[in-house]
Design brief:
The complex is a heterodimer of chains A (217) and B (227).
Chain A: H1 2-10, H2 14-38, H3 45-66, H4 71-103, H5 125-128, H6 130-133, H7 154-162, E1 168-170, E2 175-177, H8 178-216
Antiparallel strand pairs in A: 1-2
Chain B: H1 2-29, E1 38-40, E2 51-56, H2 61-79, E3 84-89, H3 97-113, H4 124-138, H5 149-160, H6 164-172, H7 174-183, H8 186-193, E4 197-200, E5 204-206, H9 214-225
Parallel strand pairs in B: 2-3
Antiparallel strand pairs in B: 1-5, 2-4, 4-5
Helix pairs in contact in B: 2-9, 3-4, 3-5, 3-6, 3-7, 4-5
Classes of the chains: A mainly alpha (217), B alpha+beta (227).
Chain lengths: 217, 227
């Protein structure tokens, strides 16, 4: 019980929600600033949906951080965070399936990616923020495509060569591709969120039950 | 009170069975299911009764995969039953979508004059298409990412073995212009589920993700043709 209370106490602090915001922001920015803009890896349709999921986590983080003691705000934050991670897991799984079909000779069972995305709730994110949300790549194609007139620094050249077979967590070993990595990230975040939520519910229920028990006694 | 509730319950069960029965028998007979294997287009394409249309783009990895190993085999099977096959290039996808559409439309006009089919090895359309696929998807060629249309055209013209002047002549022909006009409809189809998209009788769009094999695809098309 002590452990549960400790965990529940953590999510009563703003810092946990700020942390959620920062993790999602960091993942998104690394994808956009480093891999897309600096190393010329182009986002595919599923990839921009994965970014949408990250934005959900950022929004959840901000809402939770407004007042981490407010039950209403926190319930909203939890709902958005769980929605975002569940969606993110779905997008990652779909990209895993497409990626496998793309890399193998067997094209069956999947639909390739579209260059006109349709975001949840019909949000025209690709029109509002095309640099981040407009897919310019194809699913499965996540190696750098350097424009002919680009002048690369030595670091850039080294990294572009390193990722020439596509994005991997450890490129030299081809260990964990992009979609497997985002699946791992979303799953871990979802587990953590559910753990916080369950501990919070247990503590709240106990709190509500406490006075009654005293009266009965 | 109790009996009437029981009677209502029984009635509901009986009704459910009656309505479910035809659904079960239908699905047992028909292999292709609307909503799973295909959808009915809201706006059918006229005069396509015995035809399969493929909507594609040079900038589409799965179009390449289908053209390498699936479409020629399926079309070969279907042609024995007198089913025609035609292609629509999607000009809205890829940096050089409009240029590719013009070139492909012109080359098909040239092939038609020479009585060459779309999958004929001598077809200049096929030659140009495969060279673009190969350059784009295998060699990562991007022709200046939209800044150098001339370089893009050069690749295709060289593959087809025609000059820029020949191309301009073919482009002006009524057959080419009519083809380009028909291809304007490609976007409406592509935006439903992306490319490649296969349309049977101008009416039924196959869900690409439900295509599981060459024989299965041919069987689904035959079934829809018979509808």
């Amino acid at each position: 019980m002590k452990f549960i209370k400790k965990i529940a106490a953590l999510q009563d602090h703003r810092i946990m929600w700020i942390l959620l915001f920062l993790i999602a922001l960091a993942l998104e920015q690394v994808a956009y600033q480093i891999f897309q803009k600096w190393l010329y890896m182009r986002p595919c349709e599923q990839c921009v949906y994965i970014r949408f999921s990250m934005v959900c986590l950022m929004i959840a983080g901000v809402i939770g951080a407004i007042n981490a003691k407010s039950i209403v705000l926190k319930v909203i934050a939890y709902i958005i965070a769980i929605y975002g991670t569940v969606k993110g897991i779905g997008f990652s799984l779909k990209l895993i399936k497409i990626g496998e079909a793309f890399r193998s000779g067997d094209p069956f069972g999947v639909q390739g990616c579209s260059s006109t995305p349709s975001f949840p709730f019909g949000l025209p994110l690709h029109e509002w923020f095309p640099s981040t949300f407009l897919p310019t790549g194809d699913c499965g194609v996540d190696y750098p495509i350097v424009p002919e007139d680009a002048v690369l620094s030595s670091t850039q050249k080294y990294l572009v060569d390193l990722y020439k077979d596509g994005w991997y967590l450890i490129p030299s070993k081809h260990f964990m591709n992009m979609e497997q990595s985002t699946l791992l990230a979303f799953s871990t975040i979802l587990l953590a969120i559910l753990m916080f939520l369950v501990c919070w519910i247990i503590v709240e229920v106990k709190k509500k039950g406490q006075p009654k028990q005293e009266k009965e006694a | 009170m109790k009996t009437s509730r029981a009677r209502k319950g029984f009635l509901a069960l009986a009704l459910a069975l009656v309505f479910a029965f035809p659904v079960f028998t239908l699905s047992a007979h028909a292999a292709a299911k609307e909503g799973t294997d295909y959808m009915v287009l809201a706006k059918p394409i006229p005069n396509m009764d015995k035809t399969v249309i493929k909507v594609f783009s040079y900038d589409c990895p799965f179009c390449y995969k289908y053209d390498k190993s699936v479409t020629p085999a399926v079309v070969g099977q279907l042609s024995k039953d007198g089913i025609k096959y035609t292609v629509w290039h999607l000009k809205t996808k890829g940096k050089y979508g409009p240029q590719a559409s013009e070139l492909f439309a012109a080359l098909i006009t040239k092939d038609e004059k020479a009585k060459l089919g779309l999958f004929d090895d001598k077809s200049s359309f096929k030659k140009a298409k495969m060279v673009y696929y190969n350059a784009y998807h295998d060699k990562k060629e991007r022709w200046g990412d939209g800044k150098d249309p001339a370089a893009f055209m050069k690749t295709g013209l060289a593959a087809a073995g025609i000059s820029e002047a020949d191309f301009q002549k073919l482009l002006k022909e009524p057959a080419t212009q009519a083809r380009l006009k028909a291809w304007e409809g490609a976007y409406e189809i592509a935006k439903i589920q992306g490319v490649p998209g296969f349309i049977v009788k101008g009416k039924y769009l196959l869900y690409t993700k439900s295509i599981k094999s060459i024989d299965g695809m041919a069987a689904t098309i035959m079934e829809l043709m018979a509808k």
